[in-house]
Amino acid sequence: MVRPIAFLVGLVFVAALVVALLIPREAAEITAAQVFHKEPKAFHLASDGPLGRFDRQQLQRGFQVYKEVCSACHSLHLVAFRDLEEIGFSKAEVKAIANQWAIEVPSVNPDTGEPATRKALPSDHFPTPYANETAARAANNNALPPDLSLIVKAREGHAAYLHSLLTGYSEVPAELKRRFPDAVPPDTLHYNPYFANLAIAMPPPLVADGQVEYSDGTPSTIENYSTDVAAFLTWAAEPKLEQRHRTGLGVLIFLLITTTLGFFAYRNVWAGVKH
Amino acid sequence: MSFPWAQHYTPKHPLMRWLDEKLPLPRLVYNAVGGGYPVPRNLNYFWNFGVLAGAALAIQLITGIVLAMHYASNADLAFNSVEHIMRDVNSGWLIRYAHSTGASFFFIVVYLHIFRGLYYGSYKAPREMVWLLGVVIFLLMMATAFMGYVLPWGQMSFWGAQVITGFFSAIPLVGEPIREWLLGGFAPDNATLNRFFSLHYLLPFVIAAVIVLHIWALHIPGSNNPTGVDVKGPQDTVPFHPYYTAKDGFGLGVFLIVFSIILFFAPNALGHPDNYIQANPMSTPAHIVPEWYFWPFYAILRAFTVNFFWIPAKLWGVVAMFGSIALLFFLPWLDNSPVRSATYRPLYKKFFWILVADVLILGLCGVKPVEEPWLRLSQLAAGYYFAHFLIILPIIAWIERPLPLPASISESVLNGEAQDGASPDQAA
Fold first, then answer.
1. Is residue B302 part of a domain?
2. In B, which residues are within 8 Å of A3 by CB distance?
3. Is-catalytic flag, B247?
4. CATH number of the domain encompassing residue B37
5. Are residues B321 and B346 in the same domain?
6. Which region among A230-234, A261-265, B109-113, B302-306 has the lowest average model confidence (pLDDT)?
7. With helix as H, strand as E and coil as C, how does chain A read?
8. Burial of A42 (0-12, 13-18, 19+ CB in 10 A)
9. B295, burial (CB in 10 Å: exposed 0-12, middle 13-18, buried 19+)
């Protein structure tokens, strides 16, 4: 009884699919994004690969770019000042960075109980530049600058995408204006072929060489700012990457030895038994 | 039950004798996975995956219990509590990545386990109950994995919950009330997150219990083998311990090596970047995709695009998606060929490999956006999936002429050579 019923049920499902398959449908319209969107540029960081380690000098430069450029609009709320010790700053330096941070931390006036602010401490997370989402949108043409703590892991293409986006702003191509006049970004948005819909609210943040003064001899160029801040944000998104790589290497060596022993034990047990 | 030639448990130490009289737990273990369980001597490496699935469940239980000590199942706190585990909890990154990668590996080994069962006909009599319980475990795993994916409360968590609970609204008349009852609200929110956490903690123990039944049911007829031929006598078997404990030990090592490579060097390769964005009910992701192990079923869901016989396309999709798993419950009776192993079933073997390719194509369609050519391809592939199980298999069983079977396992192993003395079972 099962098989005849199954046969009929099968025919019904197949019929529903065949009808769906054969019904003609309109060809999807080609969008500007399909033609002009670009994949991220080739990009390499010291932390890439199974044994990659962070370049601390680069992370510190990237932090400087975040501090002087990005932090004006973008928060980094999952990272604490104390975490900066991991990228090579001393305790005293971290204390000074927290103390001199442009935005103060929300607090309570100990005398009146009124809301107040105080200077940041190493134990504080990076303070957010806007009090809330409404304030952030009000200051940015109704766009919300995303938090950067996890941005590298939260975007397809990761650090390479970030670097491409930061250095990818360009004029709207003439061909796009001609073929897709509706897709030309309005004045409040900016053309960037690495952004999913080609029009990003963020104005180009890195505008000129020399915008950030590097003190370690690395040339102060837009290309370097972008590379370094992408490296810094890679660390911010995955601060335990080096431990992970180191632990992984040890675990693999252990497992390779154990499994080899396990293989010979298995062969030994089975010796003389045909199977 | 066991074969009459199975070794008997004889406690030597007085303490073990005492224990055996009061609570014969060591005897149970001995008869289940020790010297007392005779197993066909010709099992290949595909028979490792049952034990590996058990190991994967153990990894999920241990890491999950530790994660629950630090996780906060509250819509405002969940996302940041996961990041707290990743950044501030000692070795938290290891435990969390082991759990998220472990979920994928649980499915990898279970899919290979199912592959083995389909190829060698392990679902056939007398092992139908083993197969039925296996399908129950698979369904429980899917429910557990889905709810677990909601817990980090990222964008894909939220929108995945939205889409999957939306299936229930396809039920006529009572669908929408059922959906709201399941969610505890009109959309996924704190109530949803809390109940999913509660159930995500509960279901793995239910899975463990059904695994006990699965193994119990297996031990009645004993394990199948690559020839599919019944065990005829002691010369066909070896005791589980030490023969298969040694082989499974080696298999476990290989599994852990592959698992560690992904866990330590590409832990996010199997996840979606959008889940590193906190859930936002006001912003829908461009493409909502489930985890990779659901892609074939997601493709079946989306393949039904026309209202057919006055039934809306959405309901067709939901019924087909659940049906694609439910039909597995009938498999032992759909395929009534008396020959188990595909090795001796030339026609079945061809269609089996077409099914494997078909499911892989469905998986690919499931991750792609709903547009051509993926949509038509998924309709073709979904059509084959149903045709394979419901139409083709019964016909194959009817018209196929199987190859001659070996008289026994030992005959196929020894290939006509002289018997190598007594079997290990007899020698032991």
1. yes
2. 333-334, 336, 394
3. yes
4. 1.20.810.10
5. yes
6. B302-306
7. CHHHHHHHHHHHHHHHHHHHHHCCCCCCCCCHHHHHCCCCCCCCCCCCCCCCCCCHHHHHHHHHHHHHCHHHCCCCCCCEHHHHHHHCCCHHHHHHHHHCCCCCEEEECCCCCCEEEECCCCCCECCCCCCCHHHHHHHCCCCCCCCCCCCCCCCCCHHHHHHHHHHCCCCCCHHHHHHCHHHCCCCCCEECCCCCCCEECCCCCCCCCCCCCCCCCCCCCHHHHHHHHHHHHHHHHCCCHHHHHHHHHHHHHHHHHHHHHHHHHHHHHHCCCCC
8. exposed
9. buried
> Per the domain annotation, does B164 fall within a domain?
yes
CATH number at A209 reads 1.10.760.10
Residue B309 is assigned to a structural domain of this protein: yes
Q: Do B130 and B233 share a domain, yes or no? A: yes
Answer yes or no: do A248 and B333 touch at CB < 8 A.
Answer: no
Count of domains forming chain B: 2
Query: 0.90 exceeded by the pTM?
Result: yes
pLDDT in tens, B378-389: 999 999 999 999
Residues 89-148 of B with CB under 8 A from A: 93-94, 97
Query: What tens digit of pLDDT does each residue of A107-152 get?
Result: 999 999 999 999 999 999 999 999 999 999 999 999 999 999 999 9
* Ranges A28-32, B277-281, B346-350, B378-382: which has the least confidence: A28-32
Pair (B173, B263) in one structural domain? yes
ipTM: 0.93
Boundaries of domain holding A133: 29-79+125-257
Domain that holds residue B380: 289-410
Residue A204 resides in a domain: yes
B423 belongs to the catalytic site: no
Same domain, B119 and B248: yes
- B384 and B261 share one domain: no
Task: Tell me if B33 is assigned to some domain.
Answer: yes
DSSP state of B40: E
Pair of tokens at residue B188: 């996924």
Spell out a b/e string for B71-110, using b for 16 or more CB atoms within 10 Å of the CB, else e.
bbbebeebbbbbbbbbbebeebbbbbbbbbbbbbbbbbbb
A267 belongs to a structural domain: no
Q: Are B262 and B118 in the same domain?
A: yes
Cross-chain residue pair A156–B273, CB shorter than 8 Å: yes
Closest residue in chain A to residue B377, using alpha carbons only? A21
Whether the Cβ atoms of residue A251 and residue B264 lie closer than 8 Å to each other? yes
Q: Tally A–B CB contacts below 8 A.
A: 167
Q: Which of A155, A156, A133, A129 is nearest to A144 (CA)?
A: A133
Instruction: Assess whether B35 and B182 both reside in one domain.
Output: yes
The answer as to whether A101 is a domain residue is: no
pLDDT per residue as tens digits for the range A36-63: 999 999 999 999 999 999 999 999 999 9
- How many domains, chain A? 1
Q: Are residues B329 and B203 in the same domain?
A: no
End-to-end CA distance of chain A: 40
Confirm or reject contact between B312 and chain A (CB < 8 A).
no
In this structure, which amino acid lies at residue B50? G
Q: Where are the beta strands (DSSP E) in B307-389?
A: none
For B26-37, the three-class secondary structure string (H helix, E strand, C coil) is HHHHHHHHCCCC
Which helix (DSSP H) or strand (DSSP E) does residue B217 occupy?
A: helix B190-219
